[in-house]
Each structure stands twice: as C-alpha cells, then as structure tokens.
Amino acid sequence: MKKDFFIVVLKSSTKRGYMIWAKGFYTSIILLVLFQACSVFQEKKKEQGPSVVIHNLVEIKELPGFDSYGFEKDKAVVKEAKVKRNESLYIILRSLDVSPQEIYEIERKSKGIFNTRQIKQNQKYYTYHDAESGIPVRMVFHETATDYVVFDWEDGINIKTGQKEITKEIVSAHGTIKSSLYETLVDKNVNILVANSLSEIFGWEIDFFRLYKGDKFKVIYEKRYVDDKPYGIGQILAAEFEHRGEVHQAFFYESEAAYGYYDEVGNSVQKALLKAPFKYSQRISSNFSHNRFHPVLKKHTPHYGVDYAAPLGTPVISVGDGEVIESRYRGANGNIVKIRHNSTYKTAYLHLNGFAKGIKKGKKVRQGQVIGYVGRTGRVTGVHLDYRVYKNDKPVNPAKLVLPPSKGISNRELETYKSYTSKWKAELEALIAEQPVAEVSL
C-alpha cells in the first residue's frame, strides 16, 4: 500500500514539485531525529540535576581588596619609609611633588587634628602612588604603632585620623626564679613588661629587689597584637607569687564600685599613696613641667615636681609606707628625703629646712609619718617644698597620678566577685610552677 501511495504521488507531480516534496520530506526526517536526540539529552540532564539557561548567567566580579587603612589595594602602589634626621613634614611632602600651596592647605586643615611641627626621627609613614601614573596621592603617617593620620591630596585636601585595631590573646606564663624575675622571663622569651606589671601588683607585699632563688610565679594576662605583630601586653587577669614560702594571689576585677587587684577574699592587694605630703591643704606655686622657666637660672628647664608654697617649718609627711633611701644635703636640691615605697614607686621631698628625728637612710616609715619640715635650702628663691614622684625610676606628674584604691570588695558585691574569680583560680591551680617558665595560649 505504501508503494502504491508513492507511485500515485510521483505520477501526479511535476519535476519541480517532486524536488520540493523530496526536500521537505528529508528535512522533516532530520528534524525528527534531532528532536528525539534532544529528548534523550533532556532526560539525561534531568537525571544529572537542574539545567542552566545561558542567558540567565551574570558574571560575578571579585570585590577589590582593601588594606588595613581602608584603601583599595589594586589602585595604588604603597611604599614604606621613616622620618629622617632633621626632616620635616614640609620636606617629605615636597619630595612627593606636593606643591607649597597644597602643603599650606594641609597644615591649615591639620590644626586641631595633628601637630605637623612635631614629627620625630624614625616615625613610620606610607606613601600611596597611583598604580598607573605613579603619582603620589596620599600619605599615612603613624604617630604611634596604632594611631595614624591620613593626608590625602588626590581629590582636594582631606585629612583624617585613624587607629589600628588591637587584638588580644589570653596567655599564661609560670616558672621558678633562678636569679631575677626579669632574667627568668627574658631567657624564655616572655615580655619583660610582665615583670613590671607583677611588681606593680604585688609591690606592696613583696620586695622585688630582694627576691629569693626558688620563688615561684604564675600569671595569666592579655597579649596584644597590631597587624598580627606583638604589641606589648594588656591586662594582667590573675597572678600568683610565692615568696619565701608565702603565697600571694591577685585577681583583676572591675565594676561600678570596684577597680583594681584583689586577693581571693576580696581585700585590695594595693595601697594608695596620699595625694599630697601634708596633713592640711597647701597652695601649689609651681606645677610639673617639661619646660619651665627657672627663676634662678633664668632659662627654660624641666621641673619634675610640684612646688607647695607652705610656711617655713610646716611638717612634711610621707605619702605612703616605705624605706628611706636618701636623707642628706644634695647641692641644688638642698636637704632631701627620698623614700622607696615599693618596687614601682619612689617619692622625693626637696629643699627641706631639716629632717624629722630618726629619718636616716634605711629607716622604715609609715604613711602619714613626719619626715621633715618645709624650708628654703638649695637653689631656691623662697620657702617651699618641691615634691616629686617616680614610677619605675621615671618622674611622673603627682597631680595626674592615678593609683588604685586600697578599699576592698564590699560585702554586697563579694559573692559576685568570688564567682567571677573562681575560673581564674582554677586556671592558676592548673599551672605547674616547678616547670621552666613558658608562655602558653589559653
């Protein structure tokens, strides 16, 4: 029947019609095969997972990277440098082809933000140069390892300050003293600032100038980083010191009513120094200064104390418990008494008229005890007391010295304090002090 059908069709068709029919017939066959092939492909795709339509694809561009100062990395070439000797900000900016007019505008806009005249040798700074032209467009100048100022002249003059993020890690160190605390820590590559902190915390109970071989310590503290590089230490969180067989513990605690270091039962391990070396208020005639005009020498010199214009013979008292380490006449200082209160703090009392009975080198004194009398000995123009405070042998301003209170934890807050410090007590107990000193992350 199929044969007859094709014969009828062929007989009734012209030559041209036949060619058209044949072409259409074979095209239909090809389309049918392709359709079936596509159907098979689609079935396989369904088995493999959902299909993706090409015209729905959107190219996702990688976000540009930013450096630690917030600038795009690929837009500039960054160069590091340090301030050279006798180099000013003006000289640095001129070397970067910044015009004098722009430098003037930078200095003008810096007022109240950054003192452009107080840059120091070896201070670090970074210059940003356009990636294509190489032209300098900004400078990041570091005042400290964390604080910096940005001078940007790419699109007008813009100045802003910033601060690097400080990250913290809680670590511990422990060991046995062989010679000194400092040497023990240094030998094992532990920051010596830990020793300074321990002497400040326990200095009222332990004489760190008279440590014994075999004394032991444990400490848990914050280790700080800037740009993943060590940046000193943070808070000492808990510490224990065994001195001559007696164990001392201290825990840092802060609340609305308390701040400082306390022992396991909430007593303060630190004592406060009196604000002034007098029983009654006296007038301050000259303040602490790094550049004071000296009334006798007629030139500017540092004045590392506070002068009290008290009447001649006014009793001068020790601001804290301690040991007299100097009691004599000393040239321009006149009659002087110097007291070491602990391993951290010393005080000095200058231009005294005389010394109180028994105040000699090596004498132990109590807070509030009279040590001398106001006078005018040494290089002075009038009667007064020059009172000085030294912290780690460096003079500090007595008026701005912040010392922790000697008051302990109140009964109302004691249970909260004990609950907070219980975990630190457990951490300290877990440390074996007999092992060589080591720094371990917690």
Cα end-to-end separation: 94 Å
* Average of per-residue pLDDT values: 83
* Percent of sequence in beta strands: 25-35%
Q: Report the principal-axis shape.
A: globular
Into which percent range does the helicity of residues fall? 10-25%
The CATH class of the largest domain is Alpha Beta
Uncertain spans, ≥5 residues at pLDDT below 50?
Answer: 1-23, 30-35, 37-63
Order of helices and strands: HHEHHEEEEEHHEEEEEEEEEEEEEEEEHE
Radius of gyration: 40 Å
**CATH architecture tag of the largest domain:** Roll
Structural class call reads alpha+beta
Q: How many distinct helices?
A: 7
In the CATH hierarchy, the third-tier topology of the largest domain is known as Nuclear Transport Factor 2, Chain: A
Give the domain tally.
3
* Main sheet record: 10 strands, antiparallel
Number of strands: 23
Brief characterization of the structure:
Strands 11, 14, 15, 16, 17, 18, 19, 20, 21 and 22 form a 10-stranded antiparallel β-sheet that branches.
